[in-house]
Amino acid sequence: MARSSDRLFPRKLDLRSGVIELVHGAGGKASAQLFEEVFRLAFNNPELDRGDDGARFEGGATMVTATDGHVVTPLFFPGGDIGCLAVHGTINDVAMAGGAPHCMTVGFILEEGFPLADLKRIVASMAEAARTASVAIIAGDTKVVERGKCDGVFITTTGFGPVHSFIETPPASTRAAPGDAIVLSGEIGDHGITILAARENLPLSAPIQSDSAALHLLASELLREIPYTKCLRDPTRGGVATAINEICRASGTGAVLKEAQIPTRRAVEAACEILGVDPLYLANEGKMIAIVPRDQANRALDVMRSNPLGEKAAIIGEITDDPQNFVQMETLSGGRRMVDWLVGDPLPRIC
């Protein structure tokens, strides 16, 4: 299907004299353009073309693999740290592609002078997150760079796992179709607001912590009960708004979201109002979007709500027939507004 690149990226990257900017790592429109015009052109293959966070390959059984990099600052924050975040993020990418996370590899880039006590704390957090998810960390690498060449520690992880045997067609962004329901597993924006508050020492009216969590069991429960699930996506960088735009672009569809149905903590809404940010664009690290056939939407809701990580699940909209791939919002006032991709980078170093 057409990706409508000319409409989305009317101005091409300056590949002769342009430079990488922070916005290219924000997960929004600039990230998508960098992928399209640099990485996808060079590495072109069907798995990459699908536009999902993980890819499948044959290895006796159909396997899923996903790689993720982690540069969050601060390294420690309410509800988690860079260690558990790295494990959870990679587990979730494998799970969203229909895989059962089995093992992973880890790469560390450490800065000269980084405290060993902090490194031990991060590694212990990774180990606990992996053990809790029954995922083995089986290989890795460590590099050290000069003082000032790295912000403490950067972590890269790669996860592997077989596609669940009980599903015939793994979920993929390209499978979304008009009429499908959009189901969200819970409240949005917790991670983004937590990182922003921790970074800037902002006083919040109520305590908020990151939602960092491994979603593989929630995903497998949904796929087992509803094997017709079209697509799964964890809305990390760029938030729910960008994730839905990515799905619509990959599948050649549009979407209509219902503002009244999108679960958000009051404390997050209040913080967003003060800071002038939209929770739809804030990163989440323990939430899942599921695209399911309309007649399976209520069943999907029941399955999600039976899991502690999906207690606040809600049906937030539907996929539409729209060749322009527009995502729209039915507002609380009864009107409609466009929900575009994330533009710019309101909060870099979020994960």
How does the overall form come out from the CA principal axes? globular
Q: What can be said about the biggest beta sheet?
A: 7 strands, mixed
Uncertain stretches = none
- The total count of helices amounts to 10
pLDDT averaged residue by residue: 92
End-to-end Cα distance: 31 Å
Provide the spatial order of strands within the biggest beta sheet: 9-11-8-12-10-13-14
Determine the strand fraction and express it as a percent band.
15-25%
Rounded to the nearest angstrom, the radius of gyration is: 19 Å
Structural class: alpha+beta
Protein topology:
Blueprint: H1 5-8, H2 29-43, H3 46-49, E1 55-59, E2 61-70, E3 76-77, E4 80-81, H4 82-96, E5 103-111, H5 116-132, E6 136-145, E7 153-162, E8 181-184, H6 190-200, H7 216-225, E9 231-233, H8 239-251, E10 254-258, H9 266-275, E11 289-292, H10 297-305, E12 314-320, E13 327-330, E14 336-338
Helix pairs in contact: 4-5, 4-7, 7-10
Highlighted features:
351 residues, single chain, alpha+beta, seven-stranded mixed beta sheet
Structural notes for this entry:
It is a single chain. This protein is of the alpha+beta class. The chain is 31% helix and 22% strand. The chain has helices spanning 5-8, 29-43, 46-49, 82-96, 116-132, 190-200, 216-225, 239-251, 266-275, 297-305; strands at 55-59, 61-70, 76-77, 80-81, 103-111, 136-145, 153-162, 181-184, 231-233, 254-258, 289-292, 314-320, 327-330, 336-338. Helix 7 (216-225) packs antiparallel against helix 10. The longest helix is centred in the middle third of the chain and has 17 residues, at 116-132. The chain is globular. The two termini are 31 Å apart.
